Structure to design on (224 residues):
């Protein structure tokens, strides 16, 4: 059965810490992996990854995909309270179909 | 600004009373999705339209129907809502290209069933 697993389920850190969020998947006909940030509203897009080993970077956030080991990580450096959110990983397969993981809840304490 | 709009933002309906949620987009995207998100769970895809082509997920209950009268609008009809249907309903759009399948989400409609 296809699935997307994120870890940890929740995380509490202090401002300035660096965090690594994990997403592993077992999906047939993989096409892409996407990371979203969800606060008290709909998810907002962060990154889309299709190729192994190529890091995507946006400010303090970066992400990389390993298609051999079937996982991706999302790194956030120098965390801020505004980074507190649920981070969702979604894997696309066979065209327009997506599976979402259950998310990692990140809380950044001042 | 181009966007995905969902109305209403909050909907309260009675057990068994049909309800319709609406989604409109100004992005001119050809794919529209409906997701159901319950508390502390990931969004679950209910169905999607690729242009007028309707694609239903195998485990979407028959109680859920959808209509897409034109490119801009898509509706989610719940024929006989049960207490278990209380959730956030998210509409999303995308315009797949060879390099991007990014989805744009609306703000969601929170459905309460009494």
């Amino acid at each position: 059965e296809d699935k997307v697993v994120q870890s940890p389920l929740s995380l509490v850190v202090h401002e300035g810490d660096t965090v690594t969020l994990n997403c592993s998947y077992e999906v047939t006909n993989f096409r892409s992996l996407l990371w979203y940030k969800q606060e008290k509203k709909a998810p907002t897009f962060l990154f889309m990854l299709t190729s192994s080993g190529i890091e995507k970077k946006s400010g303090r956030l970066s992400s990389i995909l390993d298609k051999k080991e079937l996982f991706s990580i999302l790194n956030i450096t120098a965390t801020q309270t505004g980074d507190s959110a649920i981070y969702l990983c979604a894997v696309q397969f066979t065209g327009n179909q997506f599976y979402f993981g259950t998310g990692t809840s990140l809380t950044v304490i001042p | 600004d181009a966007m995905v709009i969902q109305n209403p933002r909050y909907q309260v309906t009675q057990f068994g009373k049909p309800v319709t949620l609406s989604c409109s987009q100004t992005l001119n995207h050809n794919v529209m999705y409906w997701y159901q998100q319950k508390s502390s769970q990931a969004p679950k895809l209910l169905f999607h339209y690729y242009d007028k082509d309707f694609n239903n997920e195998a485990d979407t209950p028959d109680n859920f129907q959808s209509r897409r009268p034109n490119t801009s609008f898509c509706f989610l009809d719940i024929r006989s809502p049960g207490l278990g249907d209380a959730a956030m309903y998210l509409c999303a759009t995308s315009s797949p290209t060879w390099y991007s399948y990014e989805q744009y989400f609306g703000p969601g409609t929170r459905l309460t069933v009494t």
Summary: The CA atoms of residues 88 and 110 of chain B lie 4 Å apart. DSSP finds no helices and eleven strands in chain B.
